[in-house]
Amino acid sequence: MSERTRRVWTAWQERQPRLIADVLDALGRSEGTAFGTRLNVCLADLIEPLDAVYGGSTDIADLCERAVRIALAAAGARPEELRLLDRRREVDRDWFQRPRMQGYVCYTERFCEKLANLPEHIDYLAELGVTYLHLMPLLQPRPGENDGGYAVMDYRAVDSRLGTMHDLEEVATALRSRDMSLCIDVVLNHTAREHRWAQGWLTGDPAYADFYIAFPDRTIPDAFDATIPPVFPDRAPGSFTWVDAALGGTGGWVWTTFWPYQWDLNYANPDVLLAMLGEILWLANRGVEIFRMDAVPFLWKRLGTNGLNQPETHSLMQALNGLVRLAAPATVFKAEAIVAPEDLVPYLGAHDRYRPECDLAYHNQLMVMLWSSLATKDAELARHALGRMDPIPPGTSWVTYVRGHDDIGWAVTDTDAASMGWNGFSHRRFLNDFYSGRYGDSFARGALFQQNPLTGDARISGTTAALCGIEDSLDRGDAAALEQGVRRLVLLYSVIYAFGGVPLLYMGDELALRNDRTYLDDPALAADNRWMHRPWMDWAAAGRRHDPETLEGRVFGRLQRLGAVRRGVLALRGDTDTVLLDVGDNKVLAWRRRHPRSGTFVGLANVADTDAVVDLGRLAGLGDLQPVLGSDPMEVTDGRLRLPALGFWWLAEA
Ligand code: GLC
């Protein structure tokens, strides 16, 4: 511990007795004792990260006390029902690790138009086994273009087109009564330029001084832009936008990592952290249980870097997590960090030493590797890349997914590609060609997103069904190819339901919804082709879900079955390790998981359009594995399991 940190601790000890007296006063003996105990438990995880970020410029004991008092106020205002949930979750800290956890992701308006209609669709979600519902951005966005709701102008109001904050609370309550958790986005990195903070900053309101970042000329912006890759190179190159009214009206280049109307917050100012803490806690008290922390890697800026994953970013997340847990222990953080595999695990707190940070994180690498495997019809790169990832800390978990609302960026590192003798750039280009349907025998109907003419990079848009060949085979009226497409889609879900972590089903995949081109008619959406894979729910199609003769019935029934079986397999808990296996055929992605109570689980997935053979001898020693669920009848000859094209098996010890 540095001398400076030691001084912070001493200063803190002087403040603590008064603070604890206030805690007991505000919350009473029972709640106050719980809060005080939580504070003691997490204190080091507050003081140390705050000191690491702000120690040079701020009185840390004072900052920490201000932060804890914000948490205290929120704890005091926390509704009784949520305090009971806190109590349950503190007893059952593993709640989000259980195999019963299964997510569903949708846009409220595209799923059911308004929040008030959502409760009547909970039965539909329950049929799929959903216990976690992520409603895509629904807080008050700016008018006009809003990046799918990621340009928030008020964190305490719901988009009036969807309903009111009261409706959101009702949704949270309705979900909770069915043992389902509500997840929403917290857009941490930036606000809309119309946000009260941004407007206050522009007009020189001292309460918002230094809330954003601006430079009078291009010198510093050019220096940053030289090393920071643009997120939206085609329409928003660079990370800065000229704003006439900035810097007291003399004009300035405002930091805008994403679109020009999304202004990056300046986390070098501790007041920004405290302001964001206040918003998150307020939302926690409305009944939100899982916070999807949007675009976290971008929080801290450093010259000469790519502007991602800076140590301060991790410290900020650690401090925020501790503070939110203090007031609302029923909540968890999910990191949206779409970064290289080696940069991903630290968001779950795996640093040189474990530091509690986010509880969940998107397994971007698994998602990318699955699509790459389908295109190459070979799982070796996936086995290699996934196999070399660091284990995640105990108590944390992945969220696994096939498709989300964003484009797919090919996070295949040059090192991983080289291990296959491939050139990283060429492989990424092949994937773009393949999924945009430009490659000879491609079954996919995706589209390129954000082509960067300077670097040749691009990403891919398209629904799962479109990328799996379902759209193409339907258009061509090819029944055999359609069945292959369905098998491909189910295969992907068979992996993410069993790889470890909370699987997320993206709305529409359960019905194989194809690309939606209606966004082209809306000028606020037309330029962003990510909308093609954000379809409107087709309730007529959903009405066919129980008819196994229909496409919808074939897909829905199989996904439902994956969820039902998953719930009974203890080794699919989130926090046990996944180990990649070599089963003697590169077409097969194979992995094992183990739980001390239930024994071993093995998953097998043939990513190719031709049969594969699994040498069961290679699984000897893993226990008495029995078939639990498979895509086809089990066929074993002489210790070799035939895995048909795009087939899967789940095996587990009884
Ligand atoms: C996240 C969202 C993406 C959005 C960006 C900016 O990456 O998933 O849709 O454009 O953040 O908020």
Polypeptide structure, described:
The chain is an alpha/beta fold and 654 residues long. The chain contains 20 helices and 25 strands. The chain has an eight-stranded parallel beta barrel with strand order 1-2-5-11-12-13-14-17. It has a five-stranded antiparallel beta sheet with strand order 18-19-20-25-22, with helices on one face. Strand 11 (290-294), helix 10 and strand 12 (332-335) form a beta-alpha-beta unit. The longest helix is centred in the N-terminal third of the chain and has 52 residues, at 3-54. It starts with a helix and ends with a strand. The model has no long low-confidence stretch (mean pLDDT 96). The structure holds alpha-D-glucopyranose. Residues 147-148, 150, 187, 258, 294-295, 336, 406 line the site of alpha-D-glucopyranose.
Question: Which secondary structure elements does this structure contain, and how are they paired or packed?
Answer:
Blueprint: H1 3-54, H2 60-77, H3 80-91, E1 103-106, H4 108-112, H5 122-128, E2 132-135, E3 139-141, E4 152-158, H6 165-177, E5 181-187, E6 190-192, H7 196-202, E7 214-215, H8 219-225, E8 240-243, E9 252-255, E10 262-264, H9 270-284, E11 290-294, H10 311-327, E12 332-335, H11 341-344, E13 360-362, H12 364-376, H13 380-387, E14 397-401, H14 414-419, H15 424-435, E15 447-449, E16 459-461, H16 464-467, H17 470-476, H18 479-496, E17 502-506, H19 539-542, H20 551-566, E18 578-581, E19 588-595, E20 599-606, E21 612-615, E22 625-630, E23 636-637, E24 640-643, E25 648-653
Parallel strand pairs: 1-2, 1-17, 2-5, 5-11, 11-12, 12-13, 13-14, 14-17
Antiparallel strand pairs: 3-4, 6-10, 7-9, 8-9, 15-16, 18-19, 19-20, 20-25, 21-24, 22-25, 23-24
The protein binds alpha-D-glucopyranose (GLC).
Alpha-D-glucopyranose (GLC) binds at residues 147-148, 150, 187, 258, 294-295, 336, 406.
